[in-house]
Amino acid sequence: MNLQISGRHMDIGPSFQTFIEEHFETVVSRYFGRAVDGAAVITKENSHIHAEISVHPGRSLNIHARANGSDPHQTFMDALDKLNIQMRRYKARLRDHHKQEKETFSYDAMQYVVGDHHEEEAVVPDTPPIVAEISAKIPSLTVSEAVMHMDLSNDGALFFKNKASGVFNMVYRRKDGAIGWVDPQN
């Protein structure tokens, strides 16, 4: 597994790097024997430490976890505990879904990032400029699988094709913390 460890506004010494590598690989290998890559970023802001870790086990899935604290080692371990819980939950759901043996599909799509104009171009009024085009996959999932993918990736929303209805749907996290579901068919 390719693990990238970095520190922002602080130096990550060799002993702390070894500590991170050993604990990270132990937890990840428990659930995913062949994870593709991972990252750990420890940030110091004033007297607060922020740890953000992520793992990419494959299958277009990224799992993220964050923690805050005052001790770098303990903050990393708190984030790793959260990652451990998310991976355990994911594997349990994956085992449940494999029993049903449903076919999975994904569809190619383009993702656009829009923002302000930085170049002098002929602009159509009331049309936002396209700043970046990113190729993305639209997975074919059930609603519960979509919520799981959204939770594990810590994204605010997920666009997917509903396996049950065959219609494109979206799940998103509301401001009150609940999950919203957009189903144009209903």
Number of H- or I-type helical stretches: 3
Q: Please summarize the sheet with the most strands.
A: 5 strands, mixed
> Rg, please?
20 Å
Give the uncertain stretches in residue-range form.
Answer: none
Distance between the termini: 44 Å
* Oligomer class: single chain
- Can you list the strand order of the major beta sheet? 5-6-7-8-9
Order of helices and strands: EHEEEHEEHEEE
Overall structural domain count: 2
Helix/strand-derived class?
alpha+beta
Strand content: 35-45%
Helical percentage? 25-40%
What name does CATH use for the topology of the largest domain?
Double Stranded RNA Binding Domain
Find the CATH superfamily of the largest domain: Ribosome hibernation promotion factor-like
The counted number of beta strands is: 9
- The gross shape turns out to be globular
Tell me the name of the CATH class of the largest domain.
Alpha Beta
On the 0 to 100 scale, the average pLDDT is 81
Q: What is the CATH architecture term of the largest domain? A: 2-Layer Sandwich
